Amino acid sequence: MAYDLHIERAEDLPIALSEWHAAVAATVGVRLFAATAHTITNPRTGEVINIGAREGDTEVLFPDGKWHSVFRWRGHSAVFAARFDPTDTSHPVWKAAVYLATHLGAVIRGDEGEVYDFQTGEVSDA
């Protein structure tokens, strides 16, 4: 099972979908996912799976010029898979997450409640 990171407010104040949309619109290299379903192809079997998209799901532009679905909207926060080392602060997903969290006055929190430092990608002591 993948380990997820969450963009959420530290004070447990919900992020409104309208705030998320505004943050996405203000972030270069990030856009709302426009399709009705995410299509995933299993590289080993070739099986194609379609998963319904939610309003607020978001894509990130990677250096190769391709858009990748990254952030999944979950009610009052955004979730993304940690398929990279958060200490790689140049990674396009980390950069987008930090910008979005900063814009929203939020934190990046792991599944176990730990909070990540925006500058280093390390787990914060705070």
What can you see in these coordinates?
The protein is α+β, with helices and mostly antiparallel strands. It has one domain (4-116). The chain has two helices and nine strands; from the N terminus they run E-H-E-E-E-E-E-E-H-E-E. It has a seven-stranded antiparallel beta sheet, covered by helices on one side. A two-stranded antiparallel sheet has the order 3-4. Helix 1 (17-25) packs across helix 2. The mean pLDDT is 92.
SSE succession: EHEEEEEEHEE
Distance between the termini: 27 Å
Structural class: alpha+beta
Number of domains: 1
Tell me the fraction of residues in β-strands, as a range.
25-35%
Indicate the low-confidence ranges by residue numbers.
none
- Quick one: overall form? globular
How many β strands by DSSP?
A: 9
Number of helices: 2
